[in-house]
C-alpha cells in the first residue's frame, strides 16, 4: 500500500504537471470564434487600395486584401506571399513574379497573372476614364506582361528599385477585376471592394459601421506564417467613434476590444487598468518642421540652423508625449531603412542660436522680436490635424523660438484656407510634416518636388514659387529612387539625411508611432511595417 | 384659407431658392475646393499633375454660372450630386443619415416639451416659495450646460460606470436614450423659460382674479385658465428652436458616435464637400419653412382671436 503510494506519487505529480502545461498551452493556443469590436476615430473614405495610406482606409484594406509580397515588420525583409518567388533584372527595370496557385478573390474569380497585371497597370498608370489616380509607390511604370497564368512580368521606363517593397505596402492590395471595372467614384462603398484577404466586407452603414466576416476557404497567409488557414475571428465590427474619451471609456468598460488613436496623455489611464498600448513605429520621415526657403525670412541657412538649435525636442516629448514617441535623431526614424544617427547635429543650444541669428543680421527690436531691414522674423504654420497633438507641439515650439526672438504664429484655419495657403511659402513659411513607409523611397516621397514637395520648390506642386530650387538635393533624391545597387542606394539615403540637416531644411522632432489600445484578452495583434493593424492572427482569450 | 396656404407655400419655395442660391455663392467663395482638400492630403501622395487630372475629371473647373445652373437643374431632378470626400452619391449619404436625425430630433423635441411643461408646472404648483424659486432657476442652469459636456458625463456615468446602457453596439432603442436626454436639455431650457414667464404674466390678468374669487383651485386655474393662453408664445419659440435642434444634433451625434445629418454636416464643412453642404442647407431650409408654416397654421386653431379673415395676412 505504502509502496504503491510512493510509486504513484510521482505519476500523479507528472499527470498534474502535464495537465498544467496543457492548460498553459491552451492559454497560448488560438481559439476560433468571436467578433472583434474595433473603434475607429474617423470614417473610411475611398477604398481604392492606393488610397490606403489614410489610416482608417488602411485598417480595413489590410484585412480584406492580400499583397504579392510580405514585408516582415521586424526585419523589414521582403518575403513571399501571393508571389512565391520573383526575379529582378540588374538595373531594376524588369520584375517577374511567380504566383501562388489556387488563390481566389472572394467573388470566386482567380487571382492569376492577368488579375495582378491589371491591378498594377491601374496602380502604375492610373485610368483617366475611370478616374483612378496613380499609386505613390509605383514609379516609372511602363507595362505588364502575362507570361503564363501564374507568371507576370512588369517593365519600367527607368530603374525602380523601390518596386519590390512597393508590392508589399497597403496601397498595393490586390482587388478583383470586377472592382477595377467600377469607376473610382464608386469605391467609397466598401461592399464593392473585393479582395482575396482573410476577411470580406459583410455590410456597411456609411460613415458609421462596417462589418467584416472571416472567409472560411482562406488558405494563403504570408509564406513564413505558421498560420495559413482561415482567420481565428469570425468577424470584425468597425464602429466610427470620433470622441476620444468615448473610445477609451468604451474600451475600459468592456464595450469594445480594440481602438485606434490614443493620445499620449491617455496612456497611463489605459495601462493602469491592465489594458495594452500598442505603438508601432511608422518607420518613415519623422514628425518634423520643414521650412519653405522660397520665403526670404527662412532663405538663409543660418536662420534655419538657429531655429533648429532653439528647438528643445526633449522638452516637447517629455511635456506632451510619452516613451512611445522617441526623440528624433535624424530626418528618418531609427527603425527606418538607411537610418544614420545624427543626434550630434540636432543639439539644443540657445546661445549658438542667438549668435547665428545675429550673424544673419537679425537684431532684436523693442518688442523682443528680431528684424532685419525692417522685416520682422515672424513665421507662420498651420497645424496638421492628422498628427498627434500637433497644435500643442507647434505652440510649444513657438514658445521655444520666442526665447531667441523669433515669433511663430500657429493657425488652425479651415481645410480650404489651409490647403491653399500651404502652397504659398509667403503665407506658410514653415509647416509640420511626416510620412510613413518602410522603404528608402520615403525620403524622396517627402522632399522631391514632383512628389510631396515638402520644401515647396520651383517646378513642384505650387505655382506660387519664385525661385527656390535645390538641384543637389533633388539629385540625391533621384538617386534613391533609381539606384538599383543596394549599397549605393543606402549611401544616397545617408547623403540625403546629412544634406537635409546640413541645410537645416527640416527640424525632426520625434519618431511618430500609430497608437492603439487593446483589451488584455485580445491576442495576436500584429502590425504591418508602417503600423496598420492586421487581425488575421488575432483571437480572443475570453 | 386656401389662398393663404397657397401664398405661404409660394413664399416657402422662394425661401428655398434663396437658400440654395445664397449657399451656392457663399460656398463657391471659400478658398480651395473638395478635390484639392481630399487629394492634396499627404496620405494620397499625389503629384500636382495627377491632382490637376482629377480636377478635370470631376469638372470642378468651369464658370460659376454654368456650375450654378447645372447644380440647380440636378437638384430639381432630385439628384444631389456626389460626395467627393466619402466617395459615394450624396443621396446615399442622406438615405443613411436623415432618418436617424429625424428620429433623434423628434424624440429630443418631445422630451424637451415634456421637460419644459414639467418645469413650468412645478414652478407654479410647488408647495414652497423657495422650491418654486429653485425650479425657476433650472432653465438658466440647463441653458448654461454645454451639450458636449453633458453628453460625455451621461456616457461616463450611465454607460461606463453604472453600465445601464451600452454606447457601442447598442440596440435600436438603447442607442437613443442618452442622446435624446442630452439633446432635450438645451431645447427644454428656453421653452420652460417662456412658459414660466407667460404663466406668471397671465396670472396677473383680471380673469384669473375672477376665477380665484369663484374659488377655483390652483391646479384648475393653471390647466383650465392659464395653460391655453400661455402656450402661444411657447409655440412661436418652438418653431425657432428647430435651428437649435440641428446644432444640438451635431454635437450629440459626434459625442455618441451616431450617424446623422449633424455629423455629416460637420465633416462636409471640414472638407468643403460642397454637394453635401448644398443638400443639407436645402433640406434644413425646407424643414425650417415647413415647421414654421405648421406653427402659423396652428395659431388660429389654438387662439380663436386669430381666426378672423383679416388675420390671414402673412
UniProtKB/TrEMBL annotation, chain A:
Gene Ontology molecular function, alphabetical: peptide transmembrane transporter activity
Superkingdom: Bacteria
Stretch forming the signal peptide: 1-24
GO annotations of cellular component type: ATP-binding cassette (ABC) transporter complex; outer membrane-bounded periplasmic space
Cell compartment(s), UniProt: Periplasm
Keywords, alphabetical: Signal
Domain named Solute-binding protein family: residues: 77-416
Main location group: periplasm
Any single biological process term in GO: peptide transport
Pfam families (alphabetical): SBP_bac_5
Family statement: Belongs to the bacterial solute-binding protein 5 family.
Cited NCBIfam families: SBP_KPN_01854
Protein name as annotated: TIGR04028 family ABC transporter substrate-binding protein
TrEMBL record, chain B:
Xref: PANTHER family: DIPEPTIDE TRANSPORT SYSTEM PERMEASE PROTEIN DPPB-RELATED
Domain ABC transmembrane type-1: 98-299
PROSITE patterns registered for this protein in UniProt: ABC_TM1
GO cellular component assignments: plasma membrane
InterPro entries reported for this sequence: BPD_transp_1_N, MetI-like, MetI-like_sf
Source organism: Rhizobium straminoryzae
UniProt keyword list: Cell membrane, Membrane, Transmembrane, Transmembrane helix, Transport
Its membrane topology: Multi-pass membrane protein
TM region positions: 102-129, 141-164, 176-196, 230-256, 276-299
Pfam families hit by this protein: BPD_transp_1 (PF00528), BPD_transp_1_N (PF19300)
Family assignment from sequence similarity: Belongs to the binding-protein-dependent transport system permease family.
Domain of life: Bacteria
Protein name: ABC transporter permease
Entry's Gene Ontology BP terms: transmembrane transport
Location in or out of the cell: Cell membrane
